[in-house]
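re: that chain from earlier
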Amino acid sequence: MKKITAILISCCILVFNFTIPVSAVEYDIPVEVASPEEMQELWNLYQITKLTEAPSGENVYFMDVNQNGEIVASFYRGKKIGIYSEDGQFLYGYSLSCNGYFAAKWVDDFGTLMIYILRSDRMVILDADGNCLEMAKGIDVDANSDFWDQMLAKGVDQINDTIYYLKNDNLISALGGGYSKLIRRNADGTEQVLYDAGESNFVGNLLAAISFLVLFVGISTGVIIYVVRFYKNHQGESQSITKQ
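^ sequence. v structure.
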């Protein structure tokens, strides 16, 4: 009897020590849920804090709308997220620290938010008050890639008869990455600009475009010079061999 009791106690210890975290969120891709210790470590790393002032002067890279008409917009450059009402009124937002691209999307219609961080394939789940509910990591490379592509390609969202979409005014805005305007089209065909990056964003995008152009010209020039020199040297060697 004592042996059986000891075996049962040992099994219980093993179960409690090696319990796999179970997700309370339904993900679109296969994930591995982070342990509480790992969550705390990542939370300190990402430094997610709530914003009281609306992001401004930069393009929207991604947006998502829930059934209540609430909009979440992701701003890559400033590493910020903005939450807006269906009329474009800023409600609250978040800032975070991460390398590379990220995007935020709604998990439900009650303010639960997912922040997907591309480089690490990490997902951070926040409630409407900004509390971290859980974190997870995508474990299938192909599924992660498809999930990100689907998120990034989403430039239009329709809730009932209302359409929300992202738009660029000109080529300069497009070259800066993302979209300079978030627009709502009502059922009667009228449109309302909910977010406009403004002139400061135009100047930033123009500088980015000029920098890209200078870099492109510099690389192209270097390649051309290299090819010309290689051709001349090769031609000189061929002529030398012919003379011999």
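Residues 198-243 form the longest helix (46 residues).
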